[in-house]
């Protein structure tokens, strides 16, 4: 990490964290995760800090996710650095949700993967007309993590299942409808809001600038989304989408079929299991089990190669079809890690957590 990858700033009673890798659309590396965590630790004990703000530099987006190319190279040599990165990142995700002071996240521009994890667990989540938010992991042979399956599984109806399997980006209005964000305002007002957060109560400052969001396209599509994605398995979902007679649904079917069959199948199972779990910490524990095992799938390395390294956009998935993903393999991905468990749920149950 460059020392300037996260700018740690203080103005009035505001602690401001700026993700500062604009050349990489602020993609998170391990050092950035540790820097954010250290600032939160310091500010929790500092009575002069009343509110924390998280934003991104460069104007293109808050964060395009984790530094996937680095994970790709690490995976080819054992994946030990990636494992520690995820452990620290997931601890940070839970920390943000339980932080005892208001955390305001400017989810402006592109917010993907790890960017969702560092923002959508905040207490005050702000989107704009430029917001493009998504969990695109199935396209690289991976599964939504950083609490993404927790968030998506709690969206109305099957909206989260649709977003998770297709990996599609949603608008700011859609994010609010899905429960991924709280407030909508024009991006031109973000500097004004940031200045006011240094002086005013976070809730009153954000509410004062909040605007009525545009209509959500996803909410308007709930009939076919709920009907299709409630099917028993991924193959049945695709069949319902393709046979619906709705052009958007047929496009979604084609999109899913282009993703890693293993990742799609496991994502669906992860979302349904996450829906039954009670807390973010329990879901993060589950996500580490999946992530560590996905790190060693052939599809993960192949997906990153095709999308981000060679960029031929032509991954050779193994297996190549949804029907060929063994049920026993899917089940094994969720097995307890024993002494290597993340242990967030146990840690929370053993102490008094801030709600």
Q: How would you portray this structure in words?
A:
- The structure is a single chain.
- The protein is of the alpha/beta class.
- The chain has a single domain, classed as 2-enoyl-CoA Hydratase, Chain A, domain 1 (Alpha-Beta Complex), CATH 3.90.226.
- Helices cover 48% and strands 10% of the residues.
- The protein has helices spanning 30-44, 68-75, 80-98, 114-117, 148-153, 159-166, 172-178, 190-197, 202-209, 217-220, 222-229, 234-242, 247-258, 261-276, 280-294, 298-309, 327-333, 344-349, and strands spanning 6-11, 14-19, 51-56, 103-107, 110-112, 124-127, 132-134, 170-171, 183-184.
- A six-stranded mixed sheet has the order 1-2-3-4-6-9, sandwiched between helices.
- Strand 2, helix 1 and strand 3 form a beta-alpha-beta unit.
- Helix 14 (261-276) packs antiparallel against helix 15.
- It is globular.
- The protein starts with 5 loop residues before the first strand and ends in a 6-residue tail after the last helix.
């Amino acid at each position: 990490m460059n020392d300037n990858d996260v700018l740690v700033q203080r103005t009035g009673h505001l602690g401001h964290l700026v993700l500062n890798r604009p050349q990489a659309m602020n993609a998170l590396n391990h050092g950035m995760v540790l820097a954010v965590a250290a600032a939160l630790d310091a500010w929790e004990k500092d009575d002069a800090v009343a509110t924390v703000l998280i934003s991104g530099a460069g104007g293109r987006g808050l964060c395009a996710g984790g530094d996937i190319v680095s994970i790709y190279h690490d995976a080819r040599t054992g994946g030990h650095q990636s494992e520690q990165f995820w452990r620290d990142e997931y601890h940070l995700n839970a920390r943000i949700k339980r932080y005892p002071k208001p955390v305001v996240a400017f989810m402006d521009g592109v917010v993907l993967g790890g960017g969702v994890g560092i923002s959508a667990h905040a207490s005050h989540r702000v989107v704009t007309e430029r917001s493009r938010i998504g969990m695109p992991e199935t396209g690289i042979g991976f599964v939504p993590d950083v609490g993404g399956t927790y968030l998506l599984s709690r969206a109305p109806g099957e909206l989260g299942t649709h977003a998770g399997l297709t990996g599609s980006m949603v608008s700011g209005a859609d994010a609010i409808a899905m429960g991924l964000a709280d407030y909508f305002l024009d991006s031109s007002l973000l500097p004004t809001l940031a200045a006011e957060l240094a002086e005013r109560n976070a809730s009153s400052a954000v509410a004062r600038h909040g605007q009525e969001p545009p209509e959500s396209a996803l909410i308007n599509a709930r009939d076919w989304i709920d009907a299709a994605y409630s099917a028993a398995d991924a193959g049945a979902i695709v069949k319902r989408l393709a046979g619906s007679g709705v052009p958007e649904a047929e496009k979604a079917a084609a999109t899913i079929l282009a993703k890693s069959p293993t990742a799609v199948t496991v994502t669906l199972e992860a979302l349904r299991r996450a829906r039954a779990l009670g807390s973010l910490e329990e879901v993060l524990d589950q996500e580490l089990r999946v992530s560590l095992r996905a790190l060693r799938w052939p599809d993960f390395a192949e997906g990153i190669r095709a999308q981000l390294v060679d960029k031929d956009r032509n991954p050779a998935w193994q297996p190549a079809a949804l029907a060929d993903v063994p049920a026993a393999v899917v089940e094994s991905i969720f097995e307890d890690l024993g002494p290597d468990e993340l242990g967030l749920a146990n840690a929370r149950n053993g102490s008094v957590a801030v709600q």
